[in-house]
Amino acid sequence: MTDSLLAVTVIWGFVFIYAFMGSMDFGAGFWSMVYINRKKTNATNIANRYLSPTWEVTNTFIVAIVVAIYSFFPGAAFTFGTVLLIPGSIILLLLSIRSAFMVFSHIADDYREILTYISGITGVLIPGFLISVLPVSHGGFVDFENNQQLKLVELFTSPNEYAFLGFGIASTLFLSSLLLADYSKASDDMEAYEVYRRDALITGPISLIMAFLIMITLKNEALWLYEGMIEKLPLLLLSLLFFLYSRIRFSH
Question: What is the tally of helices (H) and strands (E) in the chain?
Fold first, then answer.
């Protein structure tokens, strides 16, 4: 294994961990907001109990990603820093707001409901902006002849951007609802388990539809990536079968 391949493997390992943990963290904040006024269910308490010990750890991985990119590929760090100046600044602002409100939610009981709404709203916006990095990284929305400037108008009028945006939000809610359903079952709270089980059954197919939309829109935005995915079509079909099988098992 070459040094560059090893470095890329380390970076993608951090990305995978952050994507998985971040999805559960942000989604838990959203579900906590959704069920905050549902007096007949304990779903909000379940979400808050999971959310409390995880949000501090999750953000450390995004720092590890930035440090790894800057250390291994300084040229790429400069390019991404230039291209993602605006969306990156928005992400950092939202993360700062969310982290600040999460800290104060434990000591300001009078404002806990407002803090829950802030956590829930940013828990949906942050994954949407984070996944926008992927269509940008394909290169079609970057003007390399003009100081590597991001074409914001073309980006936010592209169907591919909104396919990624929808997938990021839907998959975040899907993964978090799965985990919270399992967490509820482990806590012997079957009422909350049924609530999150229902949410997972709804958001799962939506995530699958958005994934197909990504594939379709990639054909126009990044043909090289689309052709690479078609070459791995048997693996994609296998993953689809596993998804359908797990959904059938989860439905019963």
Answer: 11, 2
Q: Give the whole-angstrom CA distance, residue 124 versus residue 98.
A: 11
Instruction: Supply the pTM of this predicted model.
Output: 0.87
Report residue 101 CA to chain centroid gap. Answer: 20
Dihedral of the alpha carbons of 205, 167, 13, 232, in degrees to the nearest 10: 70
Residues in CB range of 250: below 8 A, 6 or more apart: 197, 200, 201
Q: How far apart are CA 216 and CA 162, in angstroms?
A: 12
Structure tokens at 112: 């806990």
Residue 108's pLDDT band, with cuts at 50, 70 and 90, is low
Return the structure tokens found at 125. 């916006």
Is residue 48 within 8 Å of residue 183, measured between CB atoms?
no
Secondary structure class of 197 (helix, strand, coil) = helix
